[in-house]
Specification:
The protein is an alpha/beta fold. It has one domain. It is built from 8 helices and 6 strands, in the order H-E-E-E-H-H-H-E-H-E-H-E-H-H. Strands 1-4 form a two-stranded parallel sheet. Strands 2-3 form a two-stranded antiparallel ribbon. Helix 1 (9-17) packs across helix 8 (217-235). It is globular and about 55 Å long.
Length: 236
């Protein structure tokens, strides 16, 4: 999977299902994408973006080569953008502390920064996170003729038995191609965790930061555990 910035809970559901997580860091950077932004609640209504700021990036630059802007201002802005949760969200203090730790990552690499955030959230939620960066793996990759072939060839090179992806990638993949190399292709539907954001409208699929503001760690982990159990039952 591409490394996303503060992704929604479904991203962590995928991590929890995997024996190995490959950070696909050779795809071209896209400025207006989940690579650099995600959504939290807006203090008045609806939602707002929180964004990682990068230095100048030329078109066609792979995400592994993208550097964060050195200024502190964008990190401070993110902290200010979640300040409105303070008076209403029951887990504000713990989540803000986690967010500060994520934003304080000692790296100027966007990929390493986003992966550090994934690691911190996984640690909080007790999700094992064994990841590798594709650009560093030196895998013997077979022919890649389209975007959907990357997952196919990486799975093949790693000797995987199954590849799991969210519904957004469904149209990229050819199930027959996976079947031919002995890899099961699973499109994972994730049931969102619903909760009551006191004083706000519930908006699904916001950043995990929003989820952690309103829900205890035990509530989140229990939801993920039920989702895993459902997944495993379906695999039998």
């Amino acid at each position: 999977m591409q490394p996303y910035f503060a992704p929604a809970l479904g991203y962590f559901d995928l991590i929890s299902l995997c024996d190995k997580w490959v950070v696909f860091d050779v795809t071209d950077f896209r400025a207006k994408s989940w690579m650099v932004r995600n959504r939290v609640l807006h203090p008045s209504s609806g939602w707002q973006y929180i964004k990682a700021k990068t230095g100048k990036v030329h078109r066609g630059t792979p995400i592994r080569d993208v550097r964060l802007a050195p200024e502190r201002d964008w990190r401070d802005l993110i902290l200010r953008q979640v300040e409105h949760y303070r008076k209403k969200a029951p887990f504000f203090d713990d989540t803000r502390e986690l967010l500060e730790r994520c934003l304080g990552a000692d790296t100027d690499s966007l990929v390493k920064f986003s992966t550090h955030m994934l690691s911190e959230v996984c640690l909080r939620l007790d999700i094992p996170f064994a990841c590798s960066f594709f650009s560093e793996m030196d895998l013997p990759i077979g022919p890649v003729e389209g975007p959907g072939d990357w997952a196919l060839r990486i799975s093949e090179a790693m000797g995987a038995t199954e590849y799991v992806n969210p519904p957004g990638g469904r149209n990229l993949f050819d199930p027959r191609a996976f079947e031919e190399i002995g890899v099961k292709l699973t499109i994972r539907e994730f049931d969102e965790l619903c909760y009551e954001p006191r004083g706000y409208e519930f908006i699904p699929m916001l950043s995990v930061i929003d989820v952690m503001m309103w829900c205890s760690v035990s509530t989140i982990t229990e939801h993920l555990a039920r989702a895993r159990e459902q997944f495993e039952r379906g695999q039998r």
